[in-house]
Amino acid sequence: MKIHPKSLSILLVAISLHLFITSHSKAQSEASIPWTKTTQLYSEAVEDTFKISIALPERYDQSKEYPVVFMTDPRFAFSSAVESARAHAIDGTIPPVILVGIGYPGSQGFGKIMQIRSRDFSTVSDPQVPGGWPSWANDIEWGGAQAFLSFIKDELTVYIRENYKTTDDHMYMGWSGGAHFGAYMLFEEPELFNKYLLVSGPFEWFHNGIAFEYEEAYAENNDDLNAKIVFAVGSSESKSTIEANERMATILGKRNYNGLEVSNHVFEEKKHYGVWPVAINYGLQKLLAKQD
Q1: Average per-residue pLDDT in the chain?
Q2: Which of 21, 130, 140, 198 could be bridged to 179 by S-S, CB 3.0 to 4.6 A?
Q3: pTM beyond 0.85
């Protein structure tokens, strides 16, 4: 069959355009962090699926076991946490660690993420907070913290332990609602983690300061709290957040729990979202510092 020169020219242009679009599309594929993988883990406790991001040390096979750092809200700071941990390890100030981000599959849109995390971090079905909520809060099923804690304790940590080379040195990092959940977890299951970075916790704001009730109930029956805890907050956050973090750190310090080390750090000129990655960089080095 004879092809008209004009038709041939159009065909060649179409082929070239297709090849350009295809190659350009491949070049624009989603970036990933080296030595990092993701998996989806269904939770029987929560009855939902989680997206778990796992970052391994660069030379993972050269050591037998590694400490594990678990963090909530990876949507906002996982890459910062990974590179901070690796940079400190290269400097030799902390050991290489496995970092586990506990996130959600599907759309990473802000509103959807905020809805699901609020379900998992809230310890009561009626949050009773001052002021109004944004529109994304209308569809939240509050009070899922106990189920979320069961997922972490009975499913996620078991999965990590069975599939990766880990020590018993387990650290938790949580920000905002994740810090409130971290305090709840500290007093509910104190042996689950031995290190905590709790950033910008709404301890006073959420449900009339119920986090302090959890601490008081724990203190009535316990003299030991084997944990190193760093509280952190930005100086440009709300007055309530700043004072609540200082109050929680002060109360814990005055209890004189056996085995407890606690401190509070204020980052100057940092607001609620911007303080998270900065606090991670600080907290990793503070909590995982190699002992002389």
Answers
A1: 90
A2: 198
A3: yes
